[in-house]
Here is the input.
Amino acid sequence: MASFTMTTFLCVALLIGINLVSGASTSFCQGTCPSGWHSNNGRCFKYVATKTHWADAERKCQNLGGHLPSVHSQEEDQFLKTLFKSLTNRDDPFWLGLSDSEMHQFYSVETGRRVIFAHQHHFLLKRAIMVSFSMSAFLCGVVFSGIALVPQVAAMELCQGGCPAGWKSVSGRCFKYIPGSKDWATAEKTCRDNGGTLASVHSAEEHEAVKQAYRALSGRDDSFWVGLSDCQKEGLWLWSDGSVFTFQKWNPGQPDNWHNDEDCVHTNVGGPKDWNDLSCASSQPFLCQTLM
Here is the structure.
């Protein structure tokens, strides 16, 4: 009989003009968190009091439209601890959205990227991270309180990697093409409904991988939405998966915010063209990404 570490957790989602509770599309640049969520630096956080194992906590966050949070700086680390303590008046541990891979490197379920910032972790195989106000690593399937939840293979699913059913692996990432053209917010919601987000790009290699994935999965050579927007503040570009904006591949003269109404980004597959800002209300094909 398998037993699992259980603790409470926080969920995180980006401010993208989507009602995270109902899933209904709202204004494209709403810029406020839904009721029950707490805003910090363009992200919305929600405390979930249910104690559960890591994989189930991540699934519950996804059902709310977010993920378990990742930490990219000492400031974010302190914010999460302060928020948790203010909501619970306790110093109990809570889950973060970090688990490691067969390569002994920790990855974030929020961003899908390898974690660079670390706070006294020990990076060990098949482990997940919880905040205990000193940061500790715990086995995803370790015994805690002697409570058996589900077979261990199910609880370890998110720790062991591999693309989910219906997703395709391209250059080490999981992608899904869903036919049809949608406005940016609806495209992002559709990706989230399928367990992912619009694709993000952080290097020239990833840019080519994303275009390769779109071409291979859609059979098209046109433009498509990526998860980049400056809805929150003009010129403040944010990825919908919460990852840091560190790479750009704009067409010459872009972004230009034409008619003061271009806050979302699409990229081109065919020819020499790359990124262009576009009205978020425009209909475009799109590509979703999720964890491997």
Summary: Helices lie at 54-63, 74-88, 152-155, 157-160, 184-193, 204-218. DSSP finds six helices and 15 strands in the chain. Residues 168-290 form a domain with the Mannose-Binding Protein A; Chain A fold (CATH 3.10.100.10).
